[in-house]
Amino acid sequence: MTTPGSWDETYARDTPPPWDIGRPQPVFTRLAERGLLAGQVLDSGCGTGENTLLAAAHGATATGIDLSAHAIARAQAKAAERGLTARFETGDVLRLGDLGLTAEVIIDSGVFHVFDDEARVRYVTSLASVLAPGGHCYLICFSDRQPGEIGPRRVSQDELRAAFGDGWSVDSIEAETFELSQARLGITSAQAWLAVIRRLG
Ligand SMILES: C[S@@+](CC[C@H](N)C(=O)[O-])C[C@H]1O[C@@H](n2cnc3c(N)ncnc32)[C@H](O)[C@@H]1O
Question: Residue 13, class by beta-carbon neighbours within 10 Å (0-12 exposed, 13-18 middle, 19+ buried)?
């Protein structure tokens, strides 16, 4: 797993990281347009906050958490520039229970896929500690349909179902697209899964 410092260094560079495309991931825009990013929304590993701010713009009480202080500062600046209200904090999404948060909806845009097997277990436990029973987690990750080895670890549908096995219902997993900026990876999109996962009461 990558260290906190390396994530922060990534955001401190002049060129944004490949996932930091300066707009929400289109899959989350479609979810917001369907009214699904509503209430207390937590963007887990929010980066520079585009998906958090999307939820805020649709009326959610939105919170973004990320390890990277550079990313959080950028997210706070964007909120101010756009006149949007959202809470952004540096924090560890493997220990969300420490942050005193409650969420009705969790967004995960490219975070589950950064964790190794051991951290995945901790991550899912951490998500469960803040998501209300019946609440939904909308998660996009690189899929095992994406060829090559550039970018993060690929995730299979079976891995998603196994990770969210106990105390969760994986309601759907659909093929989606992860948009990327071309500058560092040399590609502008990747095959992804959108998993819609519900915490059981
Ligand atoms: C691939 S990026 C996705 C960022 C953002 N969700 C987006 O779509 O732009 C993964 C993010 O997870 C964050 N991250 C990784 N491990 C973390 C942890 N343990 N706690 C909080 N954030 C973490 C990184 O700093 C990075 O911003």
Answer: exposed
